[in-house]
Amino acid sequence: MRVVMECAIPGKLLCASTSGLWNPRKVVLSRRNTGLSAHNNLCSSKFKIKAQTHHTSQVGIAKPTNLTDSDIQGFVWPSPTDEIPFWKKEFPSWDANLELPSEQTKDSKLMHIVHVTAEMAPIAKVGGLGDVVTGLARACLSRGHTVHIMLPFYECIQKHQINDLTLITTYNSYHDGNWIPTNAYHGVVSGIPVIFLEPSCQFFKGRQVYGGSYNELEAYMFFSRACLEWMQVTGTQPDIIHVHEWQAGALPILYWDMYHHLSLKNPRIVLTIHNMEHYGECRQEQLSMCGLDGSLYATFDKAVDDRTVGHNPERLSLLKGGIVYSNAVVTVSPTYLKETLCSGWLSSTLMRNRDKYFGIVNGIDTTMWNPSTDVFLPSKFNVKNSEGKKLCKYYVQRGLGLASGDHVTDTTLKVPLVVCITRLVAQKGLHLITHAIKQVEELLNQGPSIRILLMYSEELSHLLYAAADIVLVPSMYEPCGLAQMIGMRYGAVPVVRKTGGLADTVFDMDDESNHEMANGFVFEGMDEASLNCALDRAFACYRNKPGEWNCIVKKVMKMDNSWNNTARKYIEIYESVTAS
Ligand code: ADP
Fold first, then answer.
1. Residue 123 Cα, ligand 1 centroid: separation in angstroms?
2. What is the CB neighbour count within 10 angstroms for residue 31?
3. What is the pLDDT of residue 426?
4. Which protein residues touch ligand 1 with a CB less than 6 Å away?
């Protein structure tokens, strides 16, 4: 197996795997030796000739006959030895002119919704949380609501991605006996008004969203209070404060036990839990740092971590406190909701709060994730004309050193490209990912077939989704999962483990009872044999039934997993809690 590690940034794995059936690696190497510009010219002109003259396809998959000169003109094929990797080249800004989703219908009751979150795509994104906050906010804006996102002004945020950044308020917010001078800035990101809070202490400094050298728990408790303090000093009274994850878990407590007794009367609080595994463990004295009396919350019906009862010291959980104190609690898929009611230490809390607990499957922002306009792709495509996808695949294969043929048909169409784009954590089924790498190599068994890239790259993720035939999501548990939905939008067929939101969005091709929904390959066990079975079926279909495969590709591309479908469910919850 050929494994190449590059540019390690902990916590992220991008894994692309494929093989060329006859992949004379020597040819690639000698070409690379011709130097970058010579290489580029050679490849683009060769490709042009081959694409127009090569008419056979040995696997029966349609040749890209619709490619026109303009599709391929100026194509500069990348190589793994390029000084600047293909995903780091200059791309046109994709945010500045991003339109809101073309939702026409405005809701009848319009509300002011403020999201309080630790992440926001694309400027402060670590995983799905960032995508969801941005996608939901944009969907609600397009339905006519007033929406703001409140975000820590992380030092790592690229300021050029923020439009019209302006300092709007300077105020003090409480932390551990001190009032910390804090700046609030207003800016626009992806069409959404954002309030950035910048405390004058060391919080949120560092090169990454998480993992700075400050205490994260204290920083997010400060942030939670600073959001409410800002609303109070500016007289902002939204209808809904929508908080996300444990990081904002102190806000519902601070709201109902402090700010609601001051001047904030109007807002109601909705909490979305994107992942129960992160629950904001907190000592009583730490909770006191945000101005609450921590000892008052160490009870079973408030915020004590049930597992620590009788321990010395007992612990609190900001997530549990958030659940208890919010008007409504949402998790990100109906199946994950059921799973969390049945198992896990929060299940008893969730059962006690069952009447206000809902499961809404996430959407994806179909403007941000759109293969027909995606600025990162070398060639755009859509369900009616998917020729561009073949170019994307070949482009990525070339760039990662997985292909060396001169023309797109021979190299790209015979072997499936499997991608797995994920955080590198146990939840994501690391042992199955490792096994899949071996299994894919065995199934293909030719030429350089595997690339593992340990890094975070938004650009490369778009390129990989566009290039992929198969998107692999073998998670041990998955609250919702966006990778399978994004993959489908870009014509990649999902191979997933049946858990959480994966079970709500992917349905097995071989399930006779559900042909209508069937859109991928699903396995249930946590073992390698279960994965093998799904992967083998996917490969067999790709290789032996190209017509059927193309139908699945078209089907998944046509699926509507947009926020249009699910934002309405959030609005209904907002409406129900504002009425109470
Ligand atoms: P989670 O939130 O648990 O990380 P999701 O599937 O809900 O998982 O969302 C993951 C999001 O993060 C997707 O948009 C995915 O493309 C993105 N992502 C994951 N890993 C990387 C990476 N290494 N580089 C770029 N984007 C990534």
1. 14
2. 18
3. 96
4. 12, 14, 127-129, 131, 421-423, 456-458, 461, 480-483, 486
Q: Which of 571, 573, 577 is nearest to 144 (CA)?
A: 571
Phi, psi (deg, nearest 5) at residue 178:
-125, 155
**In the block, residue with structure tokens 């998107």:** 471
Dihedral angle over CA of 528, 529, 534, 540, nearest 10: 120
Distance between CA atoms of residues 580 and 568, nearest Å? 19
- List helix spans (H) across 245-400: 250-257, 284-288, 318-325, 334-342, 347-352, 387-399
> Tokens 């995903």 correspond to what residue?
87
Q: What tokens does 362 get?
A: 């996430």
Rounded distance from Cα 295 to ligand 1 centre (Å) = 37
Question: Model confidence over 62-80: pLDDT tens digits?
Answer: 334 455 555 566 678 899 9
Q: 127 alpha carbon to ligand 1 midpoint, in Å?
A: 4
CA pair distance 550, 534, nearest whole angstrom: 18
Atom of ligand 1 nearest to the CA of 478: 3
Helix or strand run (H / E) with residue 129? helix 128-142
The structure tokens 């954590």 sit at: 425
Is the peptide bond preceding residue 267 cis, with omega within 30 degrees of 0?
A: no
Distance in angstroms between the alpha carbons of the first and the last residue of the chain: 60
At which residue do the structure tokens 């939905």 appear? 485
Q: What is the CA radius of gyration of the chain?
A: 25
CA count, 13 A, side-chain hemisphere, 303: 32
Helices (H), 261-303: 284-288
pLDDT digits (tens, 9 = 90+) for 282-334: 999 999 999 999 999 999 999 999 999 888 888 999 999 999 999 999 999 99
Other beta carbons less than 10 A from residue 285's beta carbon: 11
471 DSSP β-pair partners: 419, 494
Taking 50 as the pLDDT cut, the residues of the chain under it are 1-65
Residue whose CA is at the smallest distance from ligand 1 atom 22: 456
> 25-32 and 36-53 are packed helices; what angle lies between their axes, rounded to 10 degrees?
130
360 near 505, Cβ under 8 Å?
no
CA angle at 471 for the pair 511 and 408, rounded to the nearest 5°: 115
Q: Are 57 and 413 in contact (CB under 8 A)?
A: yes
Residue 132 CA to ligand 1 center (angstroms) comes to: 11
Burial class (CB in 10 A: 0-12, 13-18, 19+), 206: middle
H/E stretch holding 486: helix 483-489
User: What 8-state DSSP symbol labels residue 150?
Assistant: E
| Secondary structure (DSSP) of 340-380 | HHHSSTTHHHHHHTGGGEEE----B-TTTS-TTT-TT-SS-
